[in-house]
Amino acid sequence: MAQQISAHQSANRLPTALLVLLTFFTPVLWLFSRGSAEVNLSLGDPVLALAALWVGWRFLRHGLKLPLFALCCAAAVITLFSMLVNVWDTVWGIRPLGMGIEFVKVMMTWLYFYVTANLITSRASLVLMLKTWLIGSVLIALSGIGGSLVFEYTGLHNPFAMYYRAQGTLGNANFFSMHLGLSCFLAVLYWLLERRGGLWVASAIAIYLTGIFFSASRGGMLAVAVCTGLFLLVATPARAKLALAGVALLALLALVFVPNKQALIQSNPFTARLSTATVDLHDPAAAQRRELWRNAWEMFLESPVYGVGSGNSARETERKAGYSLEAHNTYLGLASEVGAVGLLIYLAAFGYFPVKALARGYAARDRRYRFMAWSLVCVFLSIALAGITSNVEDYRGLWMLMGFAYGFLLYVPAGAEPSHAIANLIRLKAAA
Q: What's the pTM value of the predicted model, to 2 decimals?
């Protein structure tokens, strides 16, 4: 038995190493432009290629895990169909090369999902991925904070800050904020799963929240606040809810009646930006975003079933408004490009695993598992809220987290945790 366990552990070293590298390097991004096509490249993409080779080898030896495969095929079909139906607009707007790039971008996101789902081969590898994500997110947060402070004190532009706003290695302050926000709930999930590391988890969350502040992302802060409120509403007893409500009320009163409030708000660019809302009629950025939303909605109305074609919305925006930008709204962007059919496919894919985890937790009446499921729900909900003001469907982390959620359902039982001996037997049976 000991020799079998040792052999099984040795066989898992390669997928474990690939999982760690993929998780750690994927959030390191940069924008690559070629003609009319723009692609976000990741340092994790070469690791994905190696991992895909391992997945192919595994397919020949043992078969593959292919969750949501019908939805994957449906997404591929609607993407191709939307481009072919609008073929003249597509060829004129993004060129044949752009068509190929758009399709590859869609399929690569699904590849991240399937590779992650197959690299997670046990509860131990699931926890290792989670720990790697949290450590990497600390470094990403520190890179953004450092880049923002460098700009503030020296005025020097650097790749880790968009002027004064922290963006770390993600190349976008809003993505940076979203990544750190969901990492807060992954940290809570890690603490609930491992039942240890409370001080380390609290320190990591404090760094994430600091990074979110330095990003000056209003949407990111709102998403974290809403998800935190939801989690505390579910996870705390009645007395704690009253205490938290009292603390929130006192904080609100202090904020309203603080002396020299206007001078304090204007004392630094972060609080000055956060004092305005994205729907402010006098905010030029908000006005441009409303225009983008209006254009995306009009495109959806032109072709509500299958859309104007994947990748065509930016060209249509340039024709109508004079500039080429994405919709800055995931739901309107998907609806305009692949129609209501495509939007429903993606919503079903993004929501399947957290909803299933939550349903399992309530069915089993396991309180700790239920809290873990709510942590997972808050991870995806924070991305969903960020999607109101950004396009997040190409965010590789989302698709890796879908693979993580699949592994969570597969290797974390909704009940008493098995002993190490039983867990080893389960892993051996799964490998066989």
A: 0.87
